[in-house]
Amino acid sequence: MSKKKLLCLFDVDGTLTKPRNNIDEEIYSFLIDKVKLECAIGLVGGSDFKKIAEQMKGDDVINKFDYVFPENGLLQFKNGKEVGRQNIQRHMGEDNLQSFINFVLAYLSTVKLPVKRGTFVEFRTGMLNISPIGRSCSQQERDEFEIYDQKHEVRKTMIENLRKQFPDLDLTYSIGGQISFDAFPYGWDKTYCLKLLESEGFNEIHFFGDKTDKGGNDYEIFNDKRVIGHKVTGPLDTKKQLEALLNL
């Protein structure tokens, strides 16, 4: 297939890397040296640019990939240049934003966990990332919280409470990764990046992601009619599915 006709678009955490880890050299070389020769390649992640760059071998990621969409595409890079930007404070307004953050912090003060660390609310361009344990926890504490959360549904219960408290804010909640969930305006999930991509002339857009079940942060784009979705279990599975798709 012609590179201009096909785009392979990737989630980062759990798809190209292990959660919050850096990409393995084998996967990186495969994408840049083989996949990119066959089609256009892009990244779309919920994290900000700094975190995505950290996982993907530095700021040069915007030159290595044809498209890079941090924060679900509210920040947009094409061929190494920024081509679009949106932010949540302008959309929600400061009063609504503070009411929401204040409620989150008050709620978390009542939640008892095995451990708590720091940075419970991370303000991003297009979303609020909320972590009951705190984003400054260690990798071991991350792993332990993930297991604890699977049993006690800490994040799921918190989202239910936020929906009841703020029914008029028109927010979407999405659980992704091991320790947090995102809150963002309706439609500002990963499908946001498709606003740019659908005008780029691709015959097919293939999306690869691991959190594709309902409530996961890949669910909306995986099920969008504009893309062909591929559910993966990790970086090696992504590689295997790409080899089959592109006959590599």
Automatic annotation (TrEMBL):
Q: Which reaction does it catalyse?
A: alpha-D-mannose 1-phosphate = D-mannose 6-phosphate
Give the InterPro entries listed for this entry.
Answer: HAD-like_sf, HAD-SF_hydro_IIB, HAD_sf, PMM, PMM_cap
Determine the domain of life of the protein's source: Eukaryota
Q: Which UniProt keywords apply?
A: Cytoplasm, Isomerase, Magnesium, Metal-binding
Q: Where in the cell is it found?
A: Cytoplasm
What GO MF annotations does this protein's record show? Answer: metal ion binding; phosphomannomutase activity
Could you name the active-site residues? Answer: 11 (nucleophile), 13 (proton donor/acceptor)
This protein's pathway? Nucleotide-sugar biosynthesis; GDP-alpha-D-mannose biosynthesis; alpha-D-mannose 1-phosphate from D-fructose 6-phosphate: step 2/2
Positions of transmembrane segments? none
- Could you say which enzyme class this protein belongs to? isomerase
Which Enzyme Commission numbers does its entry carry? 5.4.2.8
Kindly list the GO CC terms recorded for this protein.
Answer: cytosol
Ligand binding (alpha-D-mannose 1-phosphate): 20, 124, 135, 142, 180, 182
- Residue positions annotated to bind Mg(2+) are 11, 13, 210, 222, 224
What biological-process terms (Gene Ontology) are attached?
A: GDP-mannose biosynthetic process; mannose metabolic process; protein N-linked glycosylation
Kindly report the protein's main subcellular placement as a broad class: cytoplasm
- Does this entry carry the keyword Isomerase? yes
Cofactor list:
Mg(2+)
Provide the function of this protein: Involved in the synthesis of the GDP-mannose and dolichol-phosphate-mannose required for a number of critical mannosyl transfer reactions.
Record text on subunit structure and interactions: Homodimer.
Q: NCBIfam families, from UniProt? A: HAD-SF-IIB
The UniProt family comment states:
Belongs to the eukaryotic PMM family.
What name does UniProt use for this protein?
A: Phosphomannomutase
Record the organism: Psylliodes chrysocephalus
